[in-house]
Amino acid sequence: MVRSIYGDNPKQWDLALPQIEFAYNSVVHVVDLVKLPKALGVSASAETMAEEILVVKEVVKAKLEATGKKNKVAADKRRRFKVFKEGDDVMVLLRKGRFAVGTYNKVKPRKYGPFKVLRKINDNAYVVALPKSTNISNTFNVADIHEYHADGVLYPEENLRTSSSEVEETDVGEI
User: What pLDDT score does 154 carry?
Assistant: First the structure.
């Protein structure tokens, strides 16, 4: 814990001690939850220990549920809700795990498509019409599906040259 707090300044570890002490003391530890006999030779009865363990389980379960709800609220804040209809054109993001071992490399395109949405499984999963030659599952999470926008000419009036070394008249006079 000390190393994670002081970071890049190992010689100033003593300045981080108050923060470490506060963090350590404010956390509930397992030893604090189970009340074991403090005196040597004194045995706690099995019934009282069983009751205490049940109480500990209930406390832990309640805290896990509260943490889960808090994490869900935080995740929903940044979640983008996307809804597609059957027949929509979409681009599919193929991650490394979708490819067979040894066939993926970094220079392959990340998005493939456009493909049609065949059906909606639920709000989070869709079936996409992939070609049979891909040999991968055609069910995708909504995070891996993006709307397809057909590329159009952005500036149709402009005279755009593909290279500055093309031999044509210069556009200096137009300035």
Answer: 47
